[in-house]
Structure formats: C-alpha cells, structure tokens
Design a protein that fits this description.
4-stranded antiparallel β-sheet; globular
C-alpha cells in the first residue's frame, strides 16, 4: 500500500517526540504499548481502549492498577539483539524513562507514584490519586514500551530502538518510510508493507493520488470534488480533542449574565458556518469521549443553538448598551472567515459586535494568558483525555479555563475525575455535558476533521486516529497486493 504524505519526523525517540507525524507515518506504528485504541468508526469518535501488549488489566483498588502481559508479546530482532518475550521489567524501565527524565509526554504519568514488577508477567502501577484515564494514557502513541537491553550504547533519537509492534520501521535517504509487516507479531497486518511517499506540499500529494502513484492520502475539501469525479472514495476522520472553540467571558458584562450567554448560543448556527468554511467537522461540547456511552444526542447540542427568536427576550431584558468584541484567531483564511460568520450571526440576532482579528501570538496572549476578551473564536489547547479537558478547560480552577465556571460544574467534574466505575462515570459525563450546554460558557464550534481519499485498491480503511495513533494501518489492506 502506498500513502502520500508531507513532512518528516525530527528523530526516532517516541518518548521525546512532539510530532504527530511520527505516530502516524514514522517509527510509532513499529512500537507496542500496554494499551491500544479500539478500531471502530465511531461517530462521534471515542477513546475506547483494549489490551495491546497486555492480556488483561484492571484496577485492584482506587490507587493500584495491574496489567498482565500477553505471553505472545515479543520484541522484534535487531542487530546485536535477539527477539525475546516482553517482560514486566521492560514496562517498568520504559515508564520510568518517560517519568524520571521528564521527556515530552511525562505528564501522561502524572498520577503515577511508582511502577513495579509484581511478577515476570504482571506490572503494577501505584497511583498518587485515582486516575480513571490511566488506560487511555497508556494507549497514547508516545507511551511506547522499550527493551532496556536493546539500548546499550544506542542513541534512540538517531538509531531508533526495536519495537514490539506489528511493523518493522525503515527510513530511506530520500525520507521515504516503509513499514514492513513483522511475521513475529501475534496479531498481524493486512498488507506486507506500507510505503509512505513524501511530497513537498499537500497539492503534490493530491497529484500523486490522481496519477495513481499513491493509493491513499489526506486531501482538502476544495480538491475532493474533482477526485470524487475521478472515481476515488473517501472517509472523514474526526479528531477528538482538537478544533475551534466559541467562548464567552463570564467574568465581565454582558456575559456574566447566564441568560445573555444563552442568548448568544441561540444566535449561533455553527453548522451553517461549518458548511461555508471548513466544509467538514462537528459541533459539540468538545469533551473527548472515553467510549460510546458518554455521548449525548446531537439534538441536545443543537437544541441550545440556532434559534435567534428565542434569544431576543434575553437581549431585550439585558438592554445591551455597549458593543461586544469578538476576537477571531488568524490561523488562516478559513479560520478567520469562520469566526466572522459566527460574529455576523450574533449581530443578526441583535448584539452590537466588533470583530478583532488577531495573529496567533496575540490570540494566545489575549485569550489564553490574559483572559482579556468578551467572546472569542479560535483553536483550543490539545486535550487528548477526558480529564485533561474537564479539569483543564471546564473546571473553574483549570489551568486553561478562560471562560469561567460554576460550583455545580466543578462538583460534577471532581466526582467523575476519580470515578473508576465505567457506567457511573459515563452518567456523570453526560450530566456534565448537559450542564455545560445550560451554562453556555463555550462550545466546540468546529471540531477538527480531515478527509482521506483513496483508490479502489484500498480496503478496510477505518477513519480513526485518536491521539494521532497509527493503529489503523494494521486494518487497512489492498485488493491487489501485487499491483504497484
């Protein structure tokens, strides 16, 4: 299978990696983690996980989780390193390497006090506080497990390290990356190899696809109609925890009045703005969903939006005297147009609106550092896990809370943050989302989405890349392995 891509990974150490490129197209898919994401085309997407290198796992109590390793999990052979089973000592070494050296994704293990081998095939995580997100964090494409005896005298950044995943990673001098199926992996893959063909820009990638030189590639919405006319198929990948927020500052007038905030939501038709700008995406509370039971019906989200007539009584009662300023982040023409459309919808409903378009740096400073705004439209900090979103953005004391909060929301968030029963936590998550909609502090006005187009050679493409993980490559196949 041939995949068109742009960009490159800066190095090969996944623990120290900041580039999602490496998780999808680089060394990431060659590595194993304790957990992996379930490959289902969920709508909306979820972060449901299952065992990868483990055979089973569970919380022993509120502060202890144990993982029993899969007896078939093994290391890929490498020069000077023979294949052997994955052990609990390997997991301890890897988690300690991530934590103790404070590598890029050490925060995944902030709740972990220590990791220890309970036996040769059981590893125990001792926690500082209950962390129901732990299995999701351990599925992160950056929480990879490494073999300590394979790293003697090795610089992982330049030479890489053997993995315990389904792919053998190879990078050529031109930047081309090849993932070759490893026959020692228990699960296996659908193709013998995946070749990632680099191109200098997205337009060239699309040209390679149109010319039949690659089978699969991410394409823009403006390019898709022509490709569809040429007979290509596509899937839209919705990216959980990423997108454009519409937020209101409840710390100052007029949005310190909940009725006025609700009126602002009713004035919005974000689906219309999406169709006219990004073309694809979603409208939601923004909460990353641990599994399908967390979702609330789309009708509940849409029920607080798109009804300017219902907004009018609140605006009349507020007798707005001053204009509001809507800050729009300039992350490109499409982002600016999307913000302008939302501002126009507010104006059409009766708000006196001034639009201020800010550069990326100015937006980050004004909104996320100084909290100096009435309303804003712009990207959010990435929040890959439920608690990163709820404790970081929604809770009143959250590091990234810029819109304000409520005592009721804080109590619900605190309760779910330590709830280890899946059903009880899902119920709390639904209640939190309904409370968020009722308080009208912010919403995800344009959830991030990507269109991936492919030829009729491609089979089994699952549009699911949680946290940028490349697990989907094991399920993607080609109808004719001998072609190309």
């Amino acid at each position: 299978m041939r995949v068109g891509i742009t960009g490159a990974a800066p190095h090969k150490d996944m623990h120290a990696m900041l580039s999602e490129w490496a998780a999808l197209f680089g060394p990431g898919p060659s590595h194993g983690r304790l957990m992996r994401f379930v490959l289902e085309a969920d709508d909306p997407p979820t972060l449901e996980v299952e065992c990868d290198l483990c055979e089973s796992w569970g919380f022993v109590d509120d502060l202890t989780a144990e993982f029993r390793l899969d007896p078939e999990a093994a290391w890929q052979p490498a020069e000077g390193f023979e294949s052997r089973p994955v052990t609990s000592q390997d997991v301890v070494f890897s988690m300690d390497r991530l934590r103790m050296y404070r590598l890029s994704h050490a925060s995944l293990l902030d709740s972990v006090e220590s990791v220890e081998p309970a036996s040769e095939d059981v590893v125990r995580f001792n926690l500082r506080y209950p962390d129901p997100d732990l299995p999701i964090k351990l599925a992160s494409p950056y929480a990879v497990i490494l073999a300590p005896d394979s790293l003697d005298g090795v610089d992982v950044r330049t030479s890489g390290a053997p993995g315990a995943g389904p792919w053998l990673y190879e990078r050529g001098r031109t930047g081309q990356v090849t993932l070759n199926a490893w026959d020692g992996h228990a699960t296996g893959t659908k193709v013998e190899s995946i070749v990632f063909h680099p191109a200098s820009n997205p337009q060239l990638v699309t040209r390679l696809l149109s010319q039949g030189r690659v089978d699969l590639a991410q394409v823009s919405e403006s390019e898709w109609p022509q490709l569809e006319a040429e007979g290509f198929s596509s899937e839209v990948v919705h990216r959980s925890g990423r997108g454009v927020l519409f937020g209101l500052n409840s710390a100052r007038p007029p949005f310190d009045d909940r009725d006025v905030r609700r009126a602002a939501f009713l004035a919005l038709s974000p689906h219309d703005a999406l169709r006219e700008t990004f073309g694809i995406g979603s409208v939601s509370t923004g909460l990353p969903l641990a599994d399908g039971t967390w979702g609330i019906p789309q009708a509940e989200v849409d029920g607080v939006l798109g009804d300017p007539a219902r907004a009018q009584p609140a605006l009349d009662a507020a007798v707005l005297q001053e204009s509001i300023t809507v800050i729009v982040a300039n992350f490109g023409e499409t982002h600016v147009e999307h913000g302008r459309l939302l501002a126009e919808q507010l104006e059409d409903a009766g708000f006196d609106v001034t639009v201020e378009v800010l550069s990326r740096a100015a937006y980050l400073r004004r909104v996320w550092e100084e909290r100096d705004f009435d309303a804003f439209v712009g990207p959010m900090p990435p929040t890959d896990t439920p608690n990163a979103f709820l404790l970081g953005l929604v809770h009143s004391d959250g590091a990234f809370n810029v819109t304000g909060g409520t005592t009721a929301l804080d109590a619900l968030i605190d309760q779910q943050a330590s709830e280890l029963d899946d059903a009880a936590r899902a119920e709390l998550a639904r209640e939190i989302q309904r409370e968020m909609l009722s308080e009208a502090l912010f919403l995800m006005a344009a959830g991030a989405a990507e269109r991936w187009a492919f030829s009729d050679r491609v089979t089994g493409f699952v549009p699911h890349m949680p946290m940028g993980a490349g697990d989907l490559w094991t399920r993607t196949g080609v109808a004719d392995k001998g072609a190309g």
